[in-house]
């Protein structure tokens, strides 16, 4: 009986059918990256705000004050008494006098200096110039509550982490396309609930769930794409990440055109419902079907692929070789039980962690330093585009391992040089730091491809999901590492990034080269790489 790769070669390794499926599934990258980076615009600063004195709402309505007049009566006396008090997190601990005059509500205190009036900490009486522009103004994430904005992003990353384990396992057990479609439905429903959350607790719960399902869509679509093409065409695993970058580039345009955070949230969530239409055009992975002893279904799909590619399978292709490996549900022990699998797993987990930590650290360091938020974000995304093209040009010529190692080492050297460049030549400092950003982006994109090529079909989705969960851990740690170390010495984070990247570059040289090799079907195949 022919092997799956032999049948795939006959049916077409990257014909019209695969190109269509690839293009359709690639759109997932746009929605996932928008979710990944959405906090920048969902949680942007709400502009001017101040703390309202008790009774001010009733008095403002009776006197017909404008928002600006109420602000003047509230903040100006406070500011005159103590210039260091802005009125954002503290207010005068007084009661409005509504019986005297609408023009002098503090008349009863006229014999005392405003500097001697008592102050109180503001808890839940803020007034915003732009009340629904972001979750900050919607849920009062200011002053003592400002840390909750960081919590919202940490919760999203925890959702990614949960999705990597739960949905990665489910995709290997129940099928790629089923889990993909359920994840798309979950992202859409949770995204809509997030947009209309009545309080911050509900917002966090469904943001966690949206992160979990979002990770499910991204990981399963990536694995599905790599499993339906030939070994010479697995570069599509890199090309699909161009769509992730496109999402980063498109997001600031969406945020610029839509003034409210609910509108932005709906704009990045609703397209996931359209992906449910893929039920009729994207088949289950025939590789996965073979591992679950469903050879007839796999062969039927292969005939359909051949038909769409304008080819015809030979009559003797009535059966495909089915893996002799017993069908079992994947576990972490399967990834570390044998020597090659154990080495691959540990190195890949470290590579995912390092790539995410350095990538997010450099984005935060370069990204938001005043200026135009929308333009800065667009440029930071555009910097990533050359990464995919550099990989495409080199990876099938020199292999995976060398670009993977060199990109990490160059990123490490760039971080080290940036740390010691003087501040009076900012253009050079920015240029070298951008080189580090480009290099770590290359490493980040290559690890996706290498990870999927170093696991057998029975463990591929689970292996990629588990290893990439370290990426989410790196994303959670990155802001704390960056800001805590920068408080000691501004360039100290770059030194840490440099060490992590160079060590990673040396470790990945220990991985086997997978250029032009068929995807392994069993653990034995991996051990023989």
UniProtKB/TrEMBL annotation:
Example of a GO biological process term: dopamine transport
Stretches that traverse the bilayer: 21-42, 151-170, 177-196, 202-225, 237-258, 264-282, 347-368, 374-395, 402-421, 427-450, 462-482, 488-511
Statement: the UniProt record of this protein carries the keyword Chaperone: no
Domain Major facilitator superfamily (MFS) profile, first and last residues per copy: 110-516
InterPro entries: MFS_dom, MFS_sugar_transport-like, MFS_trans_sf, Orgcat_transp/SVOP, Sugar_transporter_CS
Pfam families: Sugar_tr
GO molecular function: monoamine transmembrane transporter activity; neurotransmitter transmembrane transporter activity; quaternary ammonium group transmembrane transporter activity
Gene Ontology CC terms: apical plasma membrane; basolateral plasma membrane; mitochondrial membrane; nuclear outer membrane
Subcellular location: Apical cell membrane; Basolateral cell membrane; Mitochondrion membrane; Nucleus outer membrane
Keywords linked to the UniProt accession: Cell membrane, Glycoprotein, Ion transport, Membrane, Mitochondrion, Nucleus, Transmembrane, Transmembrane helix, Transport
Top-rank taxon, per record: Eukaryota
The keyword DNA-binding is assigned to this record: no
Family assignment from sequence similarity: Belongs to the major facilitator (TC 2.A.1) superfamily. Organic cation transporter (TC 2.A.1.19) family.
Name of the featured protein: Solute carrier family 22 member 3
């Amino acid at each position: 009986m022919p092997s799956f790769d032999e049948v795939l070669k006959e049916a077409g390794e990257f014909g019209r059918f695969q190109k269509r499926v690839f293009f359709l599934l690639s759109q997932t990258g746009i929605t996932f990256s928008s979710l990944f980076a959405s906090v920048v615009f969902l949680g942007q600063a709400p502009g001017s705000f101040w703390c309202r004195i008790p009774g001010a709402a009733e008095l403002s309505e009776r006197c017909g004050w404008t928002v600006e007049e109420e602000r003047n009566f509230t903040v100006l006396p406070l500011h005159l008494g103590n210039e260091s008090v802005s009125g954002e997190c503290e207010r005068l601990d007084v009661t409005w006098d509504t019986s005297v005059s609408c023009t002098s509500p503090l008349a009863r205190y006229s014999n005392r200096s405003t500097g001697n009036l008592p102050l109180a900490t503001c808890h839940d009486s803020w007034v915003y110039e732009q009340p629904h522009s972001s979750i900050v103004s919607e849920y009062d994430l200011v002053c003592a509550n400002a840390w909750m904005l960081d919590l919202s992003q940490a919760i999203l990353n925890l959702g990614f982490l949960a999705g990597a384990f739960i949905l990665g396992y489910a995709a290997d057990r129940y099928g790629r396309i089923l889990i993909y479609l359920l994840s798309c439905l979950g992202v859409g429903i949770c995204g809509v609930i997030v947009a209309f959350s009545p309080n911050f607790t509900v917002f966090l719960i469904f943001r966690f769930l949206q992160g979990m399902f979002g990770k499910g869509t991204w990981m399963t679509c990536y694995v599905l794409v790599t499993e339906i093409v030939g070994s010479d065409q697995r570069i599509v695993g890199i090309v699909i990440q161009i769509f992730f970058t496109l999402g980063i580039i498109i997001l600031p345009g969406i945020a610029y055109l839509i003034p409210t955070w609910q509108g932005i949230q709906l704009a990045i969530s609703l397209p996931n419902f359209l992906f449910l239409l893929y039920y009729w055009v994207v088949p289950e992975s025939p590789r996965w079907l073979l591992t679950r002893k469903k050879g007839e279904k796999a062969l039927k799909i292969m005939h359909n692929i051949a038909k769409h590619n304008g080819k015809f399978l030979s009559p003797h292709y009535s059966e495909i070789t089915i893996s002799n490996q017993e069908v079992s549900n994947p576990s972490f022990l399967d990834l570390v039980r044998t020597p090659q699998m154990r080495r691959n797993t540990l190195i890949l987990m470290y590579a995912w962690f390092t790539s995410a930590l350095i990538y997010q650290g450099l984005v935060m360091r370069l990204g938001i330093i005043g200026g135009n938020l929308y333009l800065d974000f667009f440029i930071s995304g555009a910097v990533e585009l050359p990464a995919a093209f550099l990989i495409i040009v080199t990876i099938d010529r020199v292999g995976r391992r060398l670009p993977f190692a060199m990109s990490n080492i160059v990123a490490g050297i760039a971080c080290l040089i940036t740390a010691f460049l003087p501040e009076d030549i900012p253009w050079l400092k920015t240029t070298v730091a951008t080189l580090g950003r480009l290099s770590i982006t290359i490493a980040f994109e290559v690890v996706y491809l290498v990870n999927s090529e170093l696991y057998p079909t029975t463990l591929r989705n689970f292996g990629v999901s588990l290893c990439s969960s370290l990426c989410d851990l790196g994303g959670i740690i990155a802001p704390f590492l960056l800001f805590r170390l920068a408080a000691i010495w501004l360039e100290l984070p770059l030194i840490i990034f440099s060490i992590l990247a160079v060590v990673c570059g040396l470790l990945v040289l220990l991985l086997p080269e997978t250029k032009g090799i068929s995807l392994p079907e069993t653990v034995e195949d991996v051990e023989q790489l």
